[in-house]
Amino acid sequence: MKKVFSILAAVLLTASVFAQSPEKMSYQAVIRNSSDALVTNTQIGLEVNIRQGTTSGTVVYTETQTPTTNANGLVSIEIGGGSGFNTIDWANGPYFIETKTDPAGGTNYTITGTSQLLSVPYALYAANAGTATGGGNFTHYIGEEYGGGVIFHLWKDNAGVEHGLIVALTDQSISQAWSNVTSAEIGTSAQSSWDGLSNSNSIVGQAGHTSSAAKLCLDLVSGGQSDWYLPSIQELNMLWNNYYTVTRALSQISGATQLSNRAYWSSSESYGNYAWNFDFDYGFTNSDDKDGTSYVRAVRAF
Q1: What is the DSSP string of the chain?
Q2: Tens of pLDDT along 158-177?
Q3: Number of C-beta neighbours around residue 296 at 10 A
Q4: Which domain CATH number covers 109?
Q5: Measured CA angle at 170 (ends 244, 290), to 5 deg
Q6: How far apart are CA 274 and CA 2, in angstroms?
């Protein structure tokens, strides 16, 4: 399976981003030289920019650091210590993280990588709003067995009506291609970062479609429910944010299976013949070949 990262020079930067406090996020990268050898125990220069709207959009935040790689070539930093990070309106995205690296430790940056922040800003936004958003007095709770699965997100709409997202009790596949159609891009109708049901319907409605991760979920009848779908990339991120609570609940339900520490397909198309999946081992997003295989677990909403 091909991993797609937006890297422009001879150093490979494999990044993973994790939700932390509402003020900071952690960033990890494995640094390799042009010969694909690890850059170990070396101080590097690093500039981080957060751009709004597009990969070349307005820089809303910037900071520079000089971290040191470890014996495995891994560098770990916290982003958000500079002025202005806590004023970013994460709900007004999309946002992109741009990293510039000087393996020699200075400011002569010879590598630039840019990728969309699909999980962290919304995790930070949710951290500010609360896991169950829209006010108090919820009748349900995160980790509750309900509606054929386990609740992993709750919110209230403007009318005060309670809603939630439920994850299925078992995987629908451990090795499923995103779709059998890989030569044509579906487009915006399958590229929502949050509306997994709409994405799923667009995937199965594509000309030539016969099988897909979305179809597995849409065809699922489980727990007396038949309105399952393949989650969007943001819905997978919200599941990841409540991973501990959900896995504890699953461990106590007869017949349920734990979430794997592998990558799960989302219903969010990236571009061309690529789609987003979410790595449940490290908590980051990948844009992978549609004909590659990932795990599948359905969700539903109420």
Answers
A1: --EE--B-SSS-EEEEEEE-STT-EEEEEEEB-TTS-B--S-B-EEEEEEEESSTTSEEEEEEEE--B--TTSEEEEEE--STTGGG--TTS--EEEEEEEETTSSS---EEEEEE--SHHHHHHHHHH-SEES-S--SS-TT-EETTEEEEEEEE-TT--EEEEEEESS-SEEEEESBS--SS---GGG--SS-HHHHHHHHHTSTT---BHHHHHHT--BTTB---BPPPHHHHHHHHHTHHHHHHHHHTSTT--PPPSSEEEEEEEEETTEEEEEETTTTEEEEEETTSEEEE--EEE-
A2: 888 999 999 999 999 999 99
A3: 26
A4: 2.60.40.10
A5: 95
A6: 9
* Tens-place pLDDT, residues 177-229: 999 999 899 999 999 999 999 999 999 999 999 999 999 999 999 999 999 99
Residue 142 and residue 191 in one domain: yes
Domain boundary among 106, 126, 146: 126
**Domain tally, the chain:** 2
Its pTM stands at 0.62
- The answer on pLDDT for 20 being more than 70 is no
Q: Are residues 109 and 248 in the same domain?
A: no
Do 82 and 163 sit in the same domain of this protein?
Answer: no
Q: Are residue 121 and residue 159 in the same domain, yes or no? A: no
Range of 57's domain?
Answer: 3-126
Domain boundary among 108, 126, 144: 126
Q: Torsions phi, psi of 16, nearest 5?
A: -135, 140
Phi-psi map region of 209: left, alpha, beta (phi>0 left; psi -120 to 50 alpha)? beta
Burial class (CB in 10 A: 0-12, 13-18, 19+), 223: middle
Instruction: Copy the structure tokens of residue 111.
Output: 């590598």
Q: Kindly state the tokens that stand for 120.
A: 């962290």
Q: Tokens 């677990």 belong to which residue?
A: 297
Please give the single-letter amino acid code of residue 280: F
